[in-house]
Structure formats: structure tokens, C-alpha cells
Amino acid sequence: MKPTTLPKYQIFVLHLAFWAFVLALPYLLSPSQIPPAPNVKFEKGFTVTEFFAFFAFINIPFFYINSEILIPKVFQKKGIWAYLLTAMGLIVLIFSFNYLITYLFFKNQYVPRTGPTFQLLFFLAISTAYRLISDNLKSQQEKKEQETEKLKSELSFLRSQISPHFIFNVLNSIVSLSRRKPERVEPVVVKLSDLMRYMLYESDDAKVSIERESQYLRAYIELQQLRFGDDIQINFQDNHLDESQSIEPMLLIPFVENAFKHGVGMIQNPTIDIELSTENNRLIFEVKNKVNRQFKEVKDSASGIGLANVKRRLELLYPESHQLIIKDEADFYLIHLVIG
């Protein structure tokens, strides 16, 4: 079970209900036939049941003095011996008060001597247990919150890496295109502006619809088609998408970028097949591209950032609900991703 912190008003209500039950317990458990009967009056008009209820009431401050002062300020800061010494002093004080009340209100009458002693030790035990368990749950909650914030920071950092990496690749493509086919530079820049609009204004959302992410992929593919023209065959299918499903923005694009980066150039009849679909609340995404094993690609220091990034995001966002299969065969490279 994951630790959680209840709202203060709920904690207050639980404490109130607990003490109401404790104060009512002597009346609920009091014998009606066994002497001394609870309706037998003492000299001052008190019954045995009222005697126990009274001492249950005076244990309330003892409970909170121990849990809110002695445990956090003495035991946790000064050690167990200082705590035991202080607790013993408090117990002696309460026993003295107990004796004074007994003398004033129950003088020369039958008084169950073991009752208050048992109550005192009982409340000392549950007060200590309550505080230690509460501190442990609070510590676990704080640790969980720290881990959550750490994961959020890591995800934010990973997201921030995607945009520069993407823009770096596209700008390199535009530079290359300006030399070979300058007439295509303008439509590519226009298409790039559409992609950047999505990256700047929509990718900050925690989730986007599958349909919206698909539109982004299609826009990126169209940009690449403007760049390569008929030099490459691109097949993209995104039929039968469940619009109610959502996904982390820009989670799929690194796989497509990788296909264009390594599936074009020095390859005969380059082909890239991309398929995106949803089925039974699962997202299924597949990218396949040809490769040329005889051509040794020169990799720069930024090579592999996109795939490493997306793998880490999948681990953080879908730790137990995703399956990523990568096949690096002799003449093709395939990724198969299932989320859900």
C-alpha cells in the first residue's frame, strides 16, 4: 500500500471518534450483575464506571504530551535514556495526581487500584506507537514526493532535449536541401514552422490525444517528403485510431527521426514503413526501414540521443505497461512498440 497523508480535518475527526469511544468504553463494558456494581455510589456520589471514565479522560493530555512532545523533542533528539527519564517523571506526576483525586473523591471506599495503572501504561504504549507509525508514514510520503519530483525533473529535462535534437536534425536537412534542391527550401521551412508550433505550445501538456500526435507525425513525414521527393518511398498508416486515448507528446517522433536518419543515403530503393494504430486500449506503433550494412556510417557525439531519450521516457511513464522490441537485421531495422 502506498503511504498517504490524510487531510487535517479527517485526522481531527478520527481522533475525536477514538476518544469518544475510549470515554464510552467503561459504560459499554461495565458489568451489571458482578459486584461492585457500576451503579453503587461512592461517598461523593461516583460509581465505579465513572471512576474509570474519569481516568480515561485525564489520559488524553498524557497521550498528546507523549506523542507531540516527548517522542519528537526528547526521544528523537536526545535519545532513549533522556526519554525514559522524562517519561518516568511524567508517570510519577500522573500517579501523584491519581492518588490526590482518589483521596479527595474516593476516600475510604473501594477503589480498583490496578485500573488507572493499566490505563496509563496502555495509553503510553499506543501513544508511542501512534507517533512512531505516523512519523514513518510521513517519512515514506516525503520520500515518495521527492522521488516524484525527481522523476518530473528528469522527464522535463528529457523533453527539453527532444526539441533541440529535432531542430538540429531538420536544420541540417535544410542546409543539405538548399545545395541540392533550393526550390524546396521554402515549403520545408513553412512545414517546419507548423511543427515548431506544436512543439512550443502543445508539447508542454502532460498528455495529448493519439490523433494529435499522429497529425504531428504526418506533418514531419510530409516535411521529409518535401526534402527527398521521389528519392524515397514512405508508407504511413494511422487508421482506426481511438481519439479518446492519450499519450506523452513527442514520444514517437524519435523512432521516425531515426528511420530517416539511418534509412536514407547509400541505400538502394530506400523504403520506410510507419504504422500507428490502437486496439483494445493499446497503442501499437511500428517503424521499419532498410539499412546498408556495407556502408559504415560516421556517428557524431549526438548520435543515439533520441533513442536513449525515448527509452528512458518509456521507463518513467509506462514502467510496466509498455513493450519495446527492436530488430536489427541484415537488411532492415525494425522497432515495434506497444503501450497499454
General form: rod-shaped
How many independent structural domains? 2
Order of strands in the sheet with most strands: 2-4-5-7-6
Mean pLDDT: 76
Task: Quickly give the structural class.
Answer: alpha+beta
N-C termini distance? 23 Å
Q: How many strands, which pairing sense, and closed or not: the largest β-sheet?
A: 5 strands, mixed
Percent helix range? 55-70%
Which keywords apply here?
340 residues; alpha+beta; Heat Shock Protein 90; five-stranded mixed sheet; two-stranded antiparallel sheet; 8 helices; 7 strands; rod-shaped
Explain this structure.
By secondary structure, the protein is an alpha+beta fold. The two termini are 23 Å apart. It folds into 2 domains: 8-112, no CATH class; 148-339, 2-Layer Sandwich (Heat Shock Protein 90), CATH 3.30.565. It has 8 helices and 7 strands. The protein has a 5-stranded mixed β-sheet with strand order 2-4-5-7-6, with helices on one face. A hairpin with a 3-residue loop joins strand 6 and strand 7.
